Amino acid sequence: MKKTAYLLGILIISASLLTACGNNSKTISNKNETSTHYVSGVTKKVGDTQKATDDAGQAKLLAIKNINLTKNIKGTTFKFKDAKILEIKTNNKSQRDTDEKNFGVTLPDTYYEFALYYDLTNNNKTALQINTPELILPNKVQVQPNQGSMDSLVGETIQAGAKKEGMVGAIVEKTDVSKISKFKYVTSNMSSDDDSININATTFELNK
Asked: How far apart are CA 168 and CA 184, in angstroms?
C-alpha cells in the first residue's frame, strides 16, 4: 500500500510537469518573466501556469530545456528528454502534502521544483531491479529519493527488452532557473535476480 500511495503521488506531480517539446536543445528561461498564462493542461512554455486546486498549489513554468541525450551502460539505455523548473505557490498545508510526502521534506508556502524526464530501456536478456536514482544539484549537493528528491522508477523492475518512462525531481532554489543545464543524474545500482548482472551507479552530466 505504501508503494502504491507513493507512485500515485508521483503521478500527480508528473501530470503537472509533463511536456512534449520539439528538438530545440536551447534553454528557454527568463529570469525577468512576469507574465502569467493560465493553462488547463500541461505547462509547455515559460509563463504557462496551472491554477491551484484544493490539494495542489499554483504551478508556474520558469524554465524548460530539451536535453536530447542518450547514454548506454551495460546493456541499458538512458534517453534524457526534457527538464523543467517550476514555481509552486500554496496557501495551505493541504496543497503541499503530496510534494512533502514525495520529496520527504517540509516545504514553505512558495518553493521550486526541478523535473527531468527520461526513458530507460533494458537491452539485456533478464529483468533488472531499479534501486534509488539520485540527482546532483548545481550547488554540488547530491540528493536521493525521500531526502529532497524523488524518482518514479524507485523499486521498479524492468523486464528484458522493455522500456519504462521515468521522472526524477528535486526541490531546488529559485537561482537554479538559470542553471538548468548544470544538474547531474546519478543512475541507481541495478541488478538481476540471479546476480548475473550488476550495474553500478553512474553519473551523467546533462549538458553533454
From this structure: 11
Q: Find all residues with CB under 8 Å of 8, minimum gap 6, and list them.
A: none
Lowest mean pLDDT among 38-52, 105-119, 147-161: 38-52
Helix (H, G, I), strand (E, B) or coil at 9: helix
Looking at the DSSP assignment, which residues form a beta bridge with residue 50? 59
Q: List the beta strands (DSSP E) in 30-152.
A: 37-38, 48-50, 58-73, 76-89, 110-122, 128-130, 134-136, 142-143, 149-151
The predicted model gives 3-8 an average pLDDT of 40
Does residue 194 carry a pLDDT above 70?
A: yes
Q: What would the CATH number be for the domain defined by 2-205? A: 2.60.40.1240
* Residue 189 cell numbers, joined: 545500482
Give me 176's grid cell.
537554479
**What pTM was estimated for this model as a whole?**
0.82
Where residue 40 falls among pLDDT bands split at 50, 70, 90?
Answer: confident
SS3 16: helix
Residue 22, burial from CB neighbour count under 10 angstroms (0-12, 13-18, 19+): exposed
Distance CA 199, CA 186 (A): 12
